[in-house]
Amino acid sequence: MSLALEICRITEENVGTDRLGDVRAVVLEVGDDAGVEVSNLTFCLEALLGSPPFGRARPVVEPAEGDTLRVKYLEVEDGGPDDRRT
Amino acid sequence: MAVRTIDVRERVMARNDELAATVRERLAGAGVPSFNLVSSPGSGKTLLLERTLERLGDHLRMAVVTGDVQTQNDADRLAAHTDRLVQAVVTNGACHLDASQVAAALEAVELADTDLLFIENVGNLVCPASWDLGETAKIVVFSVTEGEDKPVKYPKMFRMARYAVLNKIDLLPHLSFDVDRALAFAREVNPELEFFLTSARTGEGLDEWTAFLEAQVRGTDAGAVTHVDAASDLAPVRGSLGAVEA
């Protein structure tokens, strides 16, 4: 849970507190030697990212080398129209 | 709505590790070795520290930062054995200490007047393994009432620790705990791990423990670690077990 909270802090730092509700995905890289049980981390993140101040964000875990444990990128609704539909 | 991508590429522990490096630099600058005691709840960290303060308090100036989820009970217990300040950190639900809490606690510690720092972490064998506090080394404490396979159940903690204390060995005659098996599990996870066998209650093994701490303060390796590879080190333990089983 402590790692999940730190990931939420990093997310907040990058998008700003007032835009946490716009986050759609938090993409992580987790290595085999990171000492992290991916299912446990995902469970904690789903609980945190699915409730206020987040709302509809989901965690996405990508496998990585060694002890890598980092937030790779965030997907955030930007409030504008979806260019792909126009 | 369009979704855009924000590139982050930030290590999850980066901020804590930066603070930990600052703590480590401060402690190194003051020449203060520091040990982060980690364990599951109830392994005997606090009693081990109480006995340590009793035995070394007259000639070493020891500071203690102790963390608990709630209450300052451990800090109160430790304060009864020293005139020096015992810093209590109540984490209010968090399952570990972090480097910012230790840095803040050290603001009240006169490091120039300190020989040795103990950090008693929150009882938890999972989360504290991931959080560097700027310590010289982690010391994992586990006890004979916990089962031999703790090291393989919580490998990261035993991998991150440099030393291990197997505590409550006075209870071995009453348990089926296999010391050799426990140490083998620990070495399987971390071949470099060095051990102490102690009973904080009876004092068994504490001479080696305190000699190690004194050597750390002196900056020497002499008597630094109780190696239990030698059969003679384990013989008294095995003898006690054998007597009960017979």
Q: Would you mind describing this structure in some detail?
A:
The complex is a heterodimer of chains A (86) and B (246). Chain A has 2 helices and 3 strands; from the N terminus they run H-E-H-E-E. Chain A has 86 residues and is of the alpha+beta class. Chain A has a single domain, classed as hypothetical protein PF0899 fold (2-Layer Sandwich), CATH 3.30.2320.50. In chain A, strand 1, helix 2 (38-49) and strand 2 (58-64) form a beta-alpha-beta unit. Chain A is globular. Residues 222-246 of chain B have low confidence and may be disordered. In chain B, 38% of the residues lie in helices and 20% in strands. Chain B has 9 helices and 8 strands. In chain B, helix 7 links the parallel strand 7 and strand 8 (194-197). Chain B has a 7-stranded parallel sheet, with helices on both faces. Chain B is an alpha/beta fold. The termini of chain B are far apart. Chain B has a single domain, classed as Rossmann fold. The A-B interface holds A 1-3, 6-7, 9-10, 14-15, 24, 28, 35, 69-84 and B 1-13, 15-16, 94-96, 127, 129-131, 155-156, 159.
Strand segment count of chain B: 8
Main sheet characteristics of chain B:
7 strands, parallel
Strand composition percent of chain A: 25-35%
* Class derived from helix and strand content of chain B: alpha/beta
The global form of chain A is globular
Number of helices of chain A: 2
Q: How does the overall form of chain B come out from the CA principal axes? A: globular
What is the radius of gyration of chain B? 19 Å
Average pLDDT of chain A, to the nearest integer? Answer: 90
Oligomer class:
heterodimer
